[in-house]
Amino acid sequence: MKLDRVIAVRNSKTVYRDGDKCIKVFSENYSKAQVLNEALNQAKIEEIGLHIPKISEVTMIDGKWAIVSEYIKGKTLAQLMQENPEKKDEYLEQFVDLQVEVHKKTCPLLNKLKDKMNEKISKAELDATTRYDLHTRLEGMPKHNKVCHGDFNPSNIIVSEDGVMYLLDWSHVTQGNASADAARTYLLFWLEGDIEGAKKYLDLFCKKSNTAKQYVQKWMPIVAASQSVKGNEKEREFLLSWVNVVDYQ
């Protein structure tokens, strides 16, 4: 495999293209278990009927673990939004339609979203009283088993040349409450500085999924605390500022 064409660089991962293959190479600090778990999650999602790149192998390259999957030719939805600002509302509609489609799926073998969030809240840089309050709120939220992508944002969607949307990066996928997944996407728009996009997204998601906006907002402090465990200091500071927003308006 040739690793001479870089197509994306993420935290601790570099993605290369070699012909019709896409090779995601992980840094040395990724364990075998983490990489195999990501590949297994993606393989499970392949079976439920969504458009995603199919995995062909898991291997080692120069002492680093790598996942090889099919290369999807096209542009990310984030690129298209940037290149065609006049069509952003149209793209946003398609974006939400895809997320709602994902949430209609179930995959019983996935990890549970609540378990993952409880674990992360325990590690958050918060005092014991706040952590206890967040754990209690999380346990009180309705239990669902919908597929939740966990990092649903325009840069994780490739629009192929024939207009089909392929969803990438299934490393954070769980089964759980769709509104928690929507709260995460809303906060991702905020982290990108797109406040108007965040508001439009939330309005669209609630309309298309027939969900009360207040219900998604109840998840935001919980999701923010959970997500604050990873990321840089600036992101962590921003996310932790949401934790005490009990009744977000």
User: What is the SS-derived class?
Assistant: alpha+beta
Strand portion: 15-25%
Taking all Cα atoms into account, the compactness measure Rg is 18 Å
Q: What characterizes the major β-sheet?
A: 5 strands, antiparallel
Quantity of strands, as a count: 10
| Spatial order of the strands forming the largest sheet | 1-2-3-5-4
What does this structure look like?
With 249 residues, the protein is an alpha+beta fold. Helices cover 47% and strands 19% of the residues. The chain is built from nine helices and ten strands. It has a five-stranded antiparallel β-sheet with strand order 1-2-3-5-4, covered by helices on one side. Strand 2 and strand 3 form a beta hairpin. The N and C termini lie far apart (51 Å).
List keywords for this structure.
globular, alpha+beta, 3-stranded antiparallel sheet, 249 residues, 5-stranded antiparallel sheet
Question: Outline of this structure?
Answer:
Helix content is about 45%, strand content about 20%. By secondary structure, the chain is of the alpha+beta class.
